[in-house]
């Protein structure tokens, strides 16, 4: 029966699995798990509790789709699931995975355990693993698949079809055929469709596409994702410097990269680390990830404390000034967050041309000034009417209006310059949007405000 | 020669195109454009100025890859490019696009112009367009492709291959073959690979996969993206309620959806609207998009102003209290942003189980309390040492420490409850992270602080 997909499908399975587990209906549970799609099961696993995860894994472990299940599972759950397994048992269970997935999975174990498990893989698996691990995290070499079809250029279409029929079942995404010469150097590519559309006696070298895009295994995953997105390819070949084909990156891996990068960027922009799985961590781990980022904000607050302290006599004379601190900080902070988010995302999606940054920055400043004028006027007018009992309402009006204007303009300047500068020096601009930019803007805003107030009130 | 991809490839083309344009080297420019990949050209277009875009489009207009170029181009640039074309010319140029892309493109014109252009399409194109437009924005029906292969179940493998050879060249992503019965009802699916792997005299109904996942044209694009990501499919069939096949959604469209949704979420989370193309807008449009979101922050600031005003006598008595406003607001605001980002992204990626929200919220509160204790202690100790000239350093220490603790804990509560509540009532949780949550937290923090200060100092 065809599966119709509806939003609560996952939830239905979750309830059923739980019920069967609680009733200890082993056989039914076993059968249900074996007919559930591994990806769906991985999704359900997220919502089980610790004991359920461990117990139910005894059934999952024997399913055919185990490699896909382990691949799709949130990796933060892995160590817990294998807690009661010896390193040898773990090694034998996870060795069914493709090497690049195995490398990623091992990363989720504490280093000591991972080393123990690695040592118990067989020598072929170990060799393959070392090959993957030679590439840096987040490089193309780490996600490329080693299962692909590379055919010699001298084959005819008929021979290629025959060869495909022999091996087609083992290959994950057999939609492109990579054409290599006698030295395994890639010389062209063709799609399965082209095999079917051409005469059987033509040579692959005659029908292949010789203009193709490739990446090296050291290329950044984000660049690979960008290429696949731009050109709408289903897979990209990965070539070593000598143009030898060493792997392919498929579109499903690219989708994972895009999602992970987006999540990482959002987390970094909020100053919450970059751990996709933070929701699955303990309170202590969660707080530990977030603690250092808040330090920026704390130090900024202490600096602001010192600055305001320096203006104590001014404050003593005009205590009403204190009441405007929140609105001046808030407006600068929020307009700055808007700017830095627009710029950081613009850099990530290629909308910011790094050759013409002055245009981008100048526009942000214009926007900041425009918004600053409007909100400064609004607050100035409000103050003019509200604080008539103040000894000089016009002065106060001018002070707060001018402070809003200058803090919002400067906020846009700072919030656009910092991410662009970070990108230029090859730092991740996403980290700038978080507490750093906000804190810088807070300090600038408070200083400007008291400086402006001091100038006017001493007149 | 194979294209090696490197980061500045786009930039090289940009410079070359500009140089040729300035030298008025028409023929060379024409040739260069015609051998550039349309997707790359669309990317270069982003960085040209207005006049260059309009002039160079005269060459682009005649290229074979025009539909792909228009599809990949930032849509904010469309109206400008067609500025000097009549509605009839525009209609005839853009009618080369697939209907679903045409519908999206028309959306980028001012409504009046779009209506004029629509009226000038031929009647077949108009009928197809109305069919697409019957579905809501962001629904599967809007992005589904109408080019797919649907074969009858009674065909043999050999007949199917023959039919494929006749039509395979016209279909965008011919990797799945959809099997239908005599009523055009979808009954199964098979991949091109399966055609090649099976005996020629078998019927499609014998080899097809009968268990398949599909969506309806009214399904939300995000749900479709979720399914494709989870199951690693290259395309999903779209079926009407009577199970008639009406289109397919391909993985390249899904990638665009994922990226757009991520950008939209980031922008909403920063309170910067949800316009992907904001960087291409004028200063006025940009400021206009951002203005309303800042209003929340402004109103919040005015409320804080009123609250602090209410504590004027307390401030008069202890003016040092003013200096702590920034640090208390900053810590609450930043920890709250962390929490709401984690929760909002967790909801978007399926990491937050909406059936067990109390667990999620309680953990956030624990994290907030833990971080609040640490940062409260740090500030309390600092104050104890720094402000010894204050009449009661211990009291001030307690006031600020306790205020940090309570504002950070409450911030985590508010920042986790609001997005979950919004999701439950089917509102987009991403909007909550922006100025709304921050402003609410600012007000709560300031109120708590003065309340605590008032209680201690009147002792």
Description of the structure:
Two copies of one chain form a homodimer. With 459 residues, chain A is mainly α. Chain A folds into three domains: 9-138, MgtE N-terminal fold (Alpha Horseshoe), CATH 1.25.60; 150-259, CBS-domain, CATH 3.10.580; 278-457, Orthogonal Bundle (Tetracycline Repressor, domain 2). Chain A contains 23 helices and seven strands. Chain A has helices at residues 9-22, 26-35, 38-45, 50-60, 66-72, 78-81, 87-94, 99-106, 111-119, 123-133, 140-143, 157-167, 192-197, 204-207, 221-231, 251-269, 283-310, 312-317, 325-348, 357-386, 393-424, 430-433, 435-457, and strands spanning 3-4, 150-152, 176-180, 186-191, 213-214, 235-239, 245-250. Chain A has a three-stranded mixed beta sheet with strand order 2-3-4. In chain A, strands 6-7 form a two-stranded antiparallel ribbon. In chain A, strand 2, helix 12 and strand 3 form a beta-alpha-beta unit. In chain A, helix 1 (9-22) crosses helix 3, helix 15 (221-231) crosses helix 16 (251-269) and helix 19 packs parallel to helix 21. The radius of gyration of chain A is 30 Å and the shape is elongated. Chain A starts with a strand and ends with a helix. Residues 1-11 of chain A have low confidence and may be disordered. At the A-B interface, strand 1, helix 3, helix 12, helix 13 and strand 5 of A face strand 1, helix 3, helix 12, helix 13 and strand 5 of B. Strand 5 (213-214) of chain A pairs parallel with strand 1 of chain B.
């Amino acid at each position: 029966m065809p599966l119709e997909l509806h939003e609560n499908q996952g939830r239905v399975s979750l309830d059923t699995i739980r019920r069967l587990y609680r009733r200890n209906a082993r056989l039914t549970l076993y059968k249900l798990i074996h007919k559930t799609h591994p990806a769906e099961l991985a999704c359900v696993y997220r919502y089980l509790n610790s004991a359920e995860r461990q117990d139910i894994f005894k059934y999952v472990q024997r399913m055919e789709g185990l490699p896909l299940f382990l691949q799709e599972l949130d990796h933060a759950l892995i160590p817990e699931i294998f807690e009661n397994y010896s390193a040898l048992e773990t090694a034998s269970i996870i060795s069914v995975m493709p090497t690049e997935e195995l490398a990623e999975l091992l990363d989720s174990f504490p280093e000591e355990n991972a080393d123990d498990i690695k040592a118990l893989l067989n020598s072929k698996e170990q060799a393959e693993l070392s090959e993957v691990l030679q590439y840096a995290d987040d490089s193309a070499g780490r996600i490329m698949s080693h299962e692909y079809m590379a055919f010699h250029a001298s084959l005819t279409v008929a021979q290629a079809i025959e060869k495909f029929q022999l091996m087609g079942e083992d290959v994950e995404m057999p939609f492109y055929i990579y054409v290599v010469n006698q030295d395994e150097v890639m010389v062209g590519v063709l799609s399965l469709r082209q095999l079917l559309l051409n005469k059987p006696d033509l040579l692959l070298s005659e029908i292949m596409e010789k203009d193709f895009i490739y990446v090296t295994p050291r290329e950044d995953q984000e660049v690979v994702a960008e290429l696949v997105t731009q050109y709408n390819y289903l897979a990209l070949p990965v070539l070593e410097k000598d143009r030898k084909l060493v792997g392919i990156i498929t579109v499903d891996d690219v989708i994972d990269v895009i999602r992970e990068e987006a999540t990482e960027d959002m987390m970094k922009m909020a100053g919450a680390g970059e751990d996709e799985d933070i929701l699955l961590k303990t309170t202590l781990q969660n707080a530990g990830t977030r603690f250092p980022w808040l330090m920026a904000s704390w130090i900024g607050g202490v600096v602001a404390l010192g600055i305001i302290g320096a203006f104590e006599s001014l404050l003593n004379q005009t205590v009403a000034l204190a009441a405007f601190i929140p609105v001046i900080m808030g407006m600068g902070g929020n307009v700055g967050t808007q700017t830095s988010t627009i710029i950081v995302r613009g850099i990530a999606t290629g909308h910011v041309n790094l050759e013409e940054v002055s245009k981008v920055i100048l526009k942000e400043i214009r926007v900041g000034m425009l918004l600053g004028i409007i909100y400064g006027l609004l607050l100035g007018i409000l103050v003019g009417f509200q604080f008539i009992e103040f000894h000089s309402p016009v002065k106060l009006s001018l002070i707060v209006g001018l402070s809003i204007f200058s803090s919002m303009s400067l906020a846009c300047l700072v919030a656009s310059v910092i991410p662009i500068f970070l990108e230029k020096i090859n730092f991740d601009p996403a980290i700038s949007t978080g507490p750093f930019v906000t804190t810088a803007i807070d300090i600038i805003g408070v200083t400007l405000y008291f400086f402006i107030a001091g100038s006017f009130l001493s007149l």
